[in-house]
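Researcher: Here's the sequence for the chain we discussed earlier.
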Amino acid sequence: MSAMLSAGICYALLTGVCWCAIGIVLSCCARKKLDVIGYSLLQNGLAAAACFVCYAVPGEVVFNSGFYLLCAVILCAALLNAFAQYLVKRAMDDGHYAPVWAMAQAAMLFPFLCGVFFCGNNFSIINAAGLLLLFGGVVLPCRKGFARPGSWLKSALAALFCYGVLQSLYLLPSHVRELTDPGSMRPVLVCLGNFTGWGILSLCRREKLHFNRSILYMALVMTLLHTVSVKTFFHTLDALGKAGAGGIGIPFMQGANLVFFGIYSLVFLREKRTAENVIAELLILGGLLCLIP
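Model: Thanks. This is the structure I predict for it:
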């Protein structure tokens, strides 16, 4: 295993831990029914400032066509991320949490295929089998929800498409030489794009934003987690891209997140496991192992 590949896998695992922590915080705060748009604006604004202070090197930025194209790609992806999150929330408002969540996770197919067909990533039957195992592990516990399609399905399909496109866009700078980022601006651009997307949604909603102490505390905690995870996210894609395996990055990070959250729910929440849950978790674990080249 090459040094770049090993580094990419380590960064992917660290990103999975961060995403797991984000999921834990969100699950703990979901019952408070916070204003999601107000919270998202505050959190992404704080995260943009934190990423600029921690990572950006303005003196290294070369203002040329490549940099402007990099800005366009990352900002477009982040805008889509805000819209996709809103579509997921709208689909889940109808009560179909499991199938909507499964469809959002299924977007991992897009960056994998993008890496193979457009970025020249290495392809093997074992990697493809790993992706299918991950997909099966995600869908298996949620399959009953798909038996009752309704109005939520349109929003869920739109979210799936948005997530697939944005994840593929995030992959490009790690493979296209003209999109280099010597000033480490991608984390800042992600947060600014998310902030802009939620701002557009706020203007479309035309309702007063609501802020309180709970939103502030949650935004501060999530800013810390997001500031770390967005950097390790791009480190993963860059390292795996140099190893010719960039397409497995996002599926691997999502799979690691699912495994870590499963461990958390088993050890700390003491959730009971059905045979279906155990099979799904084994499929995800097997998928992760198959994705390692």
